[in-house]
Each structure stands twice: as C-alpha cells, then as structure tokens.
Amino acid sequence: MTEDEALLREMIVRMLRLEGYLVFEFGTAEATIETVDRHLRGVDLLISDIHLPQKDGLCLFDTLRQSYPELRAVFVSGDCTFKLPQGASLLSKPFDRQRLLSAVREALQ
Description:
Layout: H1 6-18, H2 29-39, E1 45-49, H3 57-67, E2 72-77, E3 88-92, H4 97-108
Parallel strand pairs: 1-2, 2-3
Helix pairs in contact: 2-3
C-alpha cells in the first residue's frame, strides 16, 4: 500500500489486515521500490495513490512490473481522467470498506 497521506494509508492498511491480508505500507514510490527489491520475493497486488511525490503511482506500477510482470494494481484516486494500464483498476475516492475489499478481491482473481 503506497499512499503519501498517512491517515488514509493507515485506514486502508487496517481494513485489509482485519480481513487477513498481509500488507506492507509505504509513503513514497521510492520506499516501495526499495523494499520490494531488497526484502520481498514478490508482491501479488499493488494498492497505490496515483498522485505521489516525486514518482507517481503509474510509474511505480510500471517499475515494479519490470520485475513482476503478473503484478496487478488498484489505484486509489479522486481523479478519474487518466488511462489505466492493463492489469490495473481504479477505486475512486471516497470509498468505504466494502468497495475497497471488493476491488482487492477482483484484482486478485
């Protein structure tokens, strides 16, 4: 979960962990890339804000897909004016727990 707004990130992480998902949380794309590359053997799903400082969520997804081509993504954003890459879906802000969990389940299928 990559989100620069700490309160939103904590809320999303809490909801997912309560459902039994193993979730790693990051505030920047750079921290996500560094941790995934150094410490994890892969990821099943990226959940990320589109608008992040320095490197946006779309670039983050593209970078991670170079190592993990089967990676899926759920982008969280209030801005719906961009084209999503293949393997990605959009969860529009604001959203509730049910919509978050539904988007995650669909992405992991």
